[in-house]
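Holo prediction — NAP.
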Amino acid sequence: MRLYEIRETKGIDSLTAVERDVPKVWPGQVLIRVHAVSLNYRDLLILLGRYARGLKLPLVPMSDGAGEVVEVGAGVTRVKRGDRVAGIFMPTWFSGDVSPYTARTALGGSVDGMFAEYVALSQDSIVHIPAHLSFEEAAALPCAGVTAWNALTSWVLKPGISVLVQGTGGVSVFALQFARLAGARVIITSSSDKKLEKAAAMGVSDSINYRTVPDWDQKAIELTNGIGVDHVVEVGGPGTLARSLNAVRVGGRISLIGLLSGADATVNPMPILGKQIQVQGIFVGSREMFEAMNRAINLHQLRPVIDRVFAFDEARDALRYLESGDHFGKVVIRV
Ligand SMILES: NC(=O)c1ccc[n+]([C@@H]2O[C@H](COP(=O)([O-])OP(=O)(O)OC[C@H]3O[C@@H](n4cnc5c(N)ncnc54)[C@H](OP(=O)(O)O)[C@@H]3O)[C@@H](O)[C@H]2O)c1
């Protein structure tokens, strides 16, 4: 079978196509013919040598893939041959809180990931994908989708609350979609007016270009009559957190998800105290969250936003495209 491997982390060209035998299926496991993988910013960080969380090398990359069960091992009861499934980001996080052990089992980082024609996974580490989604669409769900779902549904989410979403990448566009599903008001920031137009077509109430309006936090306060937004989906990290603390209302919530603006910062904690802000770290989510998200996606026939689908042989081009930041939503590779 064909697969990709990373032996060293010296840039996108460290991603190498190789051939290997189809994995053996052990009791309790299933063999999946992977049809699509989606890219996450983390996959780029790994290749650039900027992701240190217990990396296994050599590594089959990519946490997110969807495909079809083609063989089941002894004792498998959760799925059958022909079922359409996706792997869960942390194969040992089923429900409840994440544990230090579980956090070290993430696909495409601490253990081999999904970027292979065939992957063997425990029957407990997969979920059925919504029937109306293509494999390309379903491959977008495990990391970006579940992260956005966890961020939004682990706090108040109801019609009329205001959610500020930063940028228009994979996590943020899912956050936009889930917030709109619940009838929330979405205020979005982006570096691009063209992307803001796309977001407006998806029901976003207010758009702020953070390049031309660098004090977007003030604008968000103005847009909420001086009160501040209820919830910020924070993907920028060090470069944006201080403004998020300013933009959020007293008693509001910041879901701390990403570090797109780098990893080093000095943050003044006073606004957290003074405004009694909840700052919640989010690390993807459990299988239970994935299944709850899929129920909502099924019910509302929601479709992930796929910007572009690349061919298997174009994997490096796909990663360069992700690196360019030109995408809106998700970048996918057909396997
Ligand atoms: N904690 C977790 O569980 C978890 C899970 C998934 C992702 N993440 C992290 O979340 C972040 C986003 O991941 P992703 O996969 O969605 O990335 P992505 O698809 O590559 O998103 C990139 C987009 O983010 C926007 N952006 C970049 N810098 C920004 C800034 N300073 N302020 C506001 N927006 C900015 C840009 O949107 P515009 O072009 O519209 O400006 C850019 O196109 C990454 O740091 C990733 O590592 C964390």
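READOUT: The chain is about 30% helix and 25% strand.
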